[in-house]
Write the structure tokens for this entry.
Amino acid sequence: MKLRVTLFLVFSSLMILVGVSSAQDTQVLSVASTAGVTTWNPAVSFSTEALYMANIYETLVVVNAPDAEEEYSPALATDWSTSEDGLTWTFNLREGVTFHDGAALTADAVVRSVNLAREIGGAGFIWFPLDTVEAVDDLTVQFNMSYPAPLPLVLGSTYGAWIVSPNALDAYEADDSYFDSGVASGTGPYMLSEYTPDAEVILMANENYWGGWNDSQFDIVQISIVADDVTQEQLLRGGEVDLALRLPPSSYQSFADDPDYTVETESTLFNYLGFLNVLRPPLDSVTFRQALSYATPYQQIIDVAAEGLGTQAFGAVPQGVFPFSDSVPQYTYDVEQAQALLEESGVDPSTVSLRITYAAENAIEEVIAPLLKDAWEEALGIEVNIEGILFGQQWDEAKSDPANAQDVFLLLYWPTYSDAGADNLWSMFRSSETPFFNLSYWANETFDALIDEAGTTSGTDVDAALDLYTQAQTIMVEEAPGLFFMDTSTWYAVPTYLTGFEYNLNYPFSINFYNIEIAP
Amino acid sequence: MQKIEYTVRRLFLSVVVLLGMTVVTFMLTRIVPSNPAALYLGNRARPEQIEAAIEELGLNDPLPEQYVRYLDDLLHGDLGESLATRRPVTLEITSRLAATGELLLVSLLIAIVVGIPLGVFSAQLHGKPADIFVRAFSIIGVSLPQFWLGLLLQLTFGLGLGLPLASRIDSSLRFTSPIQDITGFFLFDSLVTGNWVAFQDVALHLILPAVTLAAYPIGLIARMTRATMLEVMQQNYIRTAEAYGLNSRLIVYRYALKNAIIPTLTVIGLTLAYSLTGAFYVEIIFNWPGLGLFTARSFLNLDFPAIMGITLFGATGYILINLLIDLLQAYIDPRVSLS
Amino acid sequence: MSISKLFLGKRGEKLPDDNFDAPPTERSGWHHTLYVIQRDVLAMFSVGWIVLILFCAVFAPVISPYPDQGRGRNNAEARLLPPSTNTLLGTDNLGRDMLSRLIFGARPAILSALVVVTAAVIIGTPLGAVAGYYGGWIDELIMRITDLFLAFPSLLLAMAIVSFAGPSLMNAVLALVVSWWPWYTRLVRSTTRSLRAQYFVEAARSIGVKDRVIITRHILPNTITPIIVQATIDIGTVILATTSLAFIGLGTQAPNADWGLMIEEGRQFLRQAWWYSMFPGIAIFLTVLAFNLIGDTLRDIFDPRQYR
């Protein structure tokens, strides 16, 4: 009954869909995912549609998972070199690659794709270190940097680095609503075949894919968009889908015990933290913030909110990504220390009332919030209120008037591309005039100077940059503008009849369907 | 004469109420969000983009002027654009109508097929234990929280008997036995095209959500049928028939039920309005891809145009159903006074 | 929305009365005896249950085995324990005693229902009396306004309110009041209309008693009975509505206890911890059932025919 991936005989309607004339066996992979589509424009895309985009479009390089031998894998670029000063990078493109619409992959397509993403992209900021990009010849691209930065990380970004067909770019220039109806043209293994908003995405194998195909791979990937994890579990258990990409955390054990599934636990770059609003007394007091940090039950949060699938964070950089360092100090759950610091801060706990906001749609934050409330109230004798609102509302409040906004903002964060120094630390803790993600509203000149310097060093001397980032993080943790709860793991229940399921933490929102095959 | 006048007046007043509705939804879309342009652009908009959007959307114009424009759009069937999907709200609604419609109709059918005989049966056995049982059954039906009943059915019948727990159709069917889209009602479309595989699958998927949704109307319809049957059966012509020694079955089904059916129909109509709300919860629990699920998602995305479009749509439906029931009553039931 | 409303018919005037539990008029003997017994037994149980729930709501901190947990304090070491002697109904995801949570959950249920129904009566009654008494364009105006409010789905209204004011029980209650009062206006209006035609009102008018006095002295007191019957059933219906809203996150917020919210929290544990969603559901069901049964009994006692 479980073996649903039987060979389906394809009927007439599909014939039209695939455009083949003779009946043949077609393998369909059914997937349930929460991933909605906010845009089909690959340059703009900055959200969950990455699941589809990453199977349709490709980047020049792929950033490998941390345990791999090589840091990068070639994708549309076969090899590259950099000048000694780290300011000029040259990439050679793969020969004979065509886009889904038949156009050939050229250096010009790369230049145009990069420039568009840089200009209008939601993730356009990843190109910040880039000065210009130019086509040297048909298959060679040169990137000129403003300062040395690790460019392959940018080129292998989850967002903003996909290479788009020049025909599609032309069409988009002529009409900026071109992508809206659900069209796509990349070089990837799958082509976008059908899209029903909020319901379904159908991907069809790209027969001309440069990587080639074998018989065990899937010809069609049918993804049902299902927002609710409980429903996804029901669909998976009912045999209506082969893969469910978001299962309830609480179901871990029952899948682990089930011989029909292999449970794959993967560390991720998803990181939970809380911003303490330093503009609002008594949170302006460093000692008081430290007291809160000591009164936070890290292990309990991991055990209860994440069902044990996580580890306490070292600062704001998750494990598995540069510039993570386990020499960044951590707070421990230490009530006595917390009480001592509270006394030292001179804050009268009976006058303190803190308001924590969290995104009501996030099941883990929903548990972190009450745990924090209870622990702080018990340890420090302060009053804590928690408020679950929609992320849009939480975010709105935090940005409109910081001094009158929430006291504590719980956030799930992940780096846009695999440089958490240039992303996590810069976005969340570097000072800025109008708040974006730095929702502690914390400003520390030493910290700012250190990460700025680290950013320009990271392209040439990674070790020195790591050291600078670690110094910066040490200051940050001591000043405690935020609470660094945990790096989380995720898990997938993969039916034993499938192989090749891989999760790469550098691409948190995508799964490569190309790698998935029917087990022999 | 009087009837025509009544009809015209009711029609006119329905239009007035509808206009009132548009004022309310307009106010909610324009005044409730602190900054509609920011919502329109999403979380990452820069201030100058917001300025431009305010200009583009005409949010600086006087409110009455905006309202007239809104009304004009409505008359052209334009409910605005969904912030989440960037498609016209009208399209979002119409493309989901069939899914919700099928669920509603099937549940209503279950309610009628079960509810009316229960009511008749109960009235016939007035006061006997079976009557008490039926009455208890129907009052239980109206006291059960629907969202909980859905979970309960999932737990028992779904996990126990292996009935599908969610969604409308096994998605792989579209590759093996695709349903030809005629009406959008899967059950109907697969039936008329003789697609038995799909028909069976769709029917199985419908069972739990439709039963959940039917629990409430079953109780209502059974109660109503019973009450009107009792009333009708005490009337003279039935007594006369009884006195003449006519077969009691004949009396019940041929004469009494026929007359009791009108008020029951009214309840069925009103039930539809109630079931719209019920369908919202049922769709969430069973991941039914209809209007309810869309509403829930629109809310999560703070998709105001979508929420208000659905509101206006639902309210129009409600007003129409009411109008229809009123007119039906006026034409069928002579006791209704038209003053 | 509510069963009682459907039975009252549109503007409470056209449907035959629901003599659901009207005593059999003709037959007597054991049928009648049986009827009276089941009627009384059910009503007795219903009253008993409601008294119990009210008692829970008022004395929650005193009678809960773990009042702290009832208020929301977690006890994470004891997560998802099945019912046992220590925790009679098991524990929830944060290790809180389900029984204590259920007892505290009676508070929002009862309180919100009382507030909604009271507010609806206060708003709806005078409008209904005025509409029914004066008739004409005043009547038409008021009735069209009620149409407008009735046509506005309360669920969507709640969503709209929550989208700008944030989710809370109070906002849910507000949304319900807005969509609930018109039912009372309709009910009172139809009663008023039938009263107005009666001799004692005519008499009062003819000797020059002021309208205001007639309405307050003669009309309103006579509408109390149907209002009480309606309100009793409505309390159950409002409990259904507020717990439903809490279920989808628009009502009571964590860590406060609410039956609907508890069902939602337990949903993902349906497989591992059946008690989590089960007991709150039973609590809602029995409470709503009890109010419905009492409402029916009251209607029966007060003779349904008077507010046809």
Observations:
- The radius of gyration of chain B is 24 Å.
- The first helix of chain B runs from residue 2 to 31.
